[in-house]
Specification:
With 289 residues, the protein is mainly α. It has one domain. Helices cover 80% and strands 0% of the residues. The protein has 11 helices and no strands.
Length: 289
């Protein structure tokens, strides 16, 4: 199994994952609900400060400890919301890729059965994400060029390591019913088994999204120019198209996780991908001297 074969599989998975979402549009509903609820949580966090309630800021204009705790709770809520709906999407996609015909409720039910683990993991993931963001901001605000560069390097390395360790967390938590510790150990092992496919599939989805996004931007500019005083219609259409593209690519990323999970577990492409004309791939067996 050569390096370019590995990259080729990842690229095929990225295209097929986006094709699966295009043909099974209900997968984007999970992303839509995740986005709506996340925005709602963020708006709720900002309301007290927008209303200039006294408990949110001190006399010097800084956030009070109480409001900081409130903001932190809101951030954790967003993380839990995203984790829950990603879990539902991956559970649904796993059934679909295995040859089943799941309903929206199947994914929701699978995630809800693991809600206690999802909440814990959402808080952990949210906390790590917040720490990485704080590190990034510290680097940007540093007056020392060396300090800023060091903070940036640490943040990038930390984010990469975290991504690798947790890439398959949700399938192990929701599909296999494992706990946090066991899921992370299994996720780490599985990632390094299929690291090339993981990276190239993500890059593939990103590239496809970028290309479609560029087309939408150009089309929007043309519509605004042609419509003249009615150009706002073009902006609305372009905005909606970008929103759909974001939901499409976000759903495809989670479908790819489910596909890579199946591939790593079985050594074969998911059943649905085989039906779509992609041949099976198997991991090579190690030979002993």
């Amino acid at each position: 199994m050569g390096f370019f074969d590995t990259i080729g599989r990842g690229w095929k998975m990225s295209k097929l994952s986006m094709s699966v979402v295009r043909k099974d549009g209900e997968l984007m509903v999970y992303v839509l609900l995740s986005g709506i609820l996340s925005v709602g949580a963020m708006v709720a966090v900002g309301i007290p400060q927008a209303l200039e309630q006294s408990w949110t800021t001190t006399s010097s204009g800084e956030m009070t400890p109480a409001y900081m705790a409130f903001v932190f709770s809101g951030y954790m809520m967003v993380s839990i919301i995203v984790t829950f709906w990603n879990s539902a999407l991956i559970a649904n996609a796993h059934i679909r890729l295995s040859g089943g015909d799941p309903s929206f409720g199947d994914g929701f039910s699978a995630a809800f059965k693991r809600i206690h683990i999802i909440i814990i993991w959402g808080i952990i993931a949210g906390t790590v994400g917040l720490l990485l963001k704080m590190l990034s901001n510290a680097g940007k605000n540093s007056r020392s060029g060396g300090g800023a560069a060091l903070a940036m390097v640490i943040q990038i390395i930390g984010a990469a390591i975290w991504w690798m360790l947790t890439f398959f967390m949700i399938p192990h938590m929701v599909i296999e019913g494992k706990g946090i510790g066991d899921s992370m150990r299994s996720s780490k092992k599985m990632f390094f088994k299929t690291w090339g496919e993981n990276i190239s599939s993500g890059l593939g989805i990103g590239l496809i999204t970028f290309l479609f996004g560029a087309i939408i931007v150009v089309a929007t500019i043309v519509m605004v120019t042609v419509l003249g005083s009615m150009g706002y219609i073009g902006l609305i259409i372009g905005g909606l198209a970008i929103a759909v593209l974001i939901m499409w690519s976000s759903a495809a990323e989670q479908v790819a996780v489910a596909a890579l999970y199946i591939y790593s577990k079985t050594g074969k492409m998911p059943q649905l991908y085989q039906e779509m004309g992609v041949k099976e791939y198997t991991f090579p067996t190690k030979t002993t001297a």
